[in-house]
Amino acid sequence: MDAFVALLDGFGEALTPINLLFALLGVLLGTAVGVLPGIGPAMTVALLLPITYVLEPTAAFIMFAGIYYGGMYGGSTTSILLNTPGESSSIMTALEGNKMAKAGRGAAALGTAAIGSFVAGTIATLLLALVAPTVVQLAISIGPADYFALALLAFLAVATVLGSSPLRGLASLCVGLFLGLVGTDLLTGQQRFTFGLPQLADGIDVVIVAVALFAVGEALHVASRLRHGPVEVMSSKGSFLTRQDFRRSWKPWLRGTALGFPFGALPAGGAEIPTFLSYATERRLTKHPEEFGRGAIEGVAGPEAANNAAAAGVLVPLLTLGLPTSATAAILLAAFQGYGIQPGPTLLTTESTLVWTLIASLFIGNVMLLVLNLPLVGIWVKLLKIPRPYLYAGILLFASLGSYAVNAQPLDLVILLVLGLLGFAMRRFGWPVAPAVIGLILGPIAETNLRRALAISDGDLSTLVDSWFSRVVLLVALLAVVLPPLLKLTRRRKEALV
């Protein structure tokens, strides 16, 4: 009941004319940037993050709610019409959605993605409002060793799930952990890896790292592989959802939501696993198996619902524990820190109005997306036809201006270039970028809690496994590392026997 009252107060704050304007602006900007080829929600939020620094916190996060969901919607449009998923969680949508578009059913694919996103986003946001206070009660009772175990679980889960191999994911994570060490050690006051530059005494700004690795690295990677000629965009025309399409879609929407939110809410969650599980589930349950691989509407409805439900789910560990479990959540954490706000168990107490307004604005942004974007799909299709050289040159210019605006220091542009080249190299050799950003943000938090736990126990390492909570979390972290290679080995042996 307290959560319901707080949510109503959040709606009272979010429904003011000026805040509705910021929500609308966020939705439009998020969709417009997210619909561009190769740009996923994480890159969308990273690019638009510097814009919000001129706003006061409540308005900024209302705008971010719109950008977040708008970027998710834009990514599905690109996946369906261009077969270019902006992130790994959109691969399943592209697999069936693009086939539907090629068969002249682009409007139906976009329709089931949009309505599925709305249904999943609405249910998952409601669950976020109900679950968050309960998780906070649990988080208050855990100590530094437990927080270190949670951070370790998030590190290993993200590093092993994302990317083509766990080893590359862990290597990317180490890059982020090293970048997180740059600056002044808060406990000793010693400077680390600053190369004598006073501008690095406070560390490398997370916004610059995120923009460099996502935007600059991606732009350089695409430019290196750019082929001349027009971009082939499938038509968004055709019949909208028929009655039969609705009958085939509503159960996948609900099943996708049921899979997506719990995985997103776990500290080791994310959107990749539930989208793959949703696709596999729909393929197993469908009454039209012959359509899978050729444009089955269930293959769009389920994964897209799972993706959006997980997007709301990742806000649970972010807001209540301060743990980002996806690249987009990591950038949102950077946005909080940019305003001097640290998400965690006390956030719902110290910044109650801000949190509940943010959750309410997620509902509002979701409704705006449904009302606005189906009629405006023709405009988004035109954006897809922007020539790639102009598009990525614009991204580089926008990234440079936004990064310079953060601190107004020329050194930031040098760091942007160096880390952008690093991001390009990571993509070139198949290293996932998200673990690096999460390592940068979570690394200092994990280090602080580890040193605090050891200081309390006079250096006794057994304190890290003293509580049942830390033992369970560390066991899950170990399984996250051991299980994937074991499953691959088992699969290879079965294939060899066959």
UniProtKB/TrEMBL annotation:
Keyword entries, A-Z: Membrane, Transmembrane, Transmembrane helix
Entry coiled-coil feature ranges: none
Transmembrane domains' residue ranges: 20-39, 46-69, 107-132, 144-163, 169-188, 200-223, 321-341, 353-377, 389-406, 468-487
Protein name: Putative tricarboxylic transport membrane protein
Species: Friedmanniella luteola
Domain of life: Bacteria
Domain DUF112, first and last residues per copy: 20-438
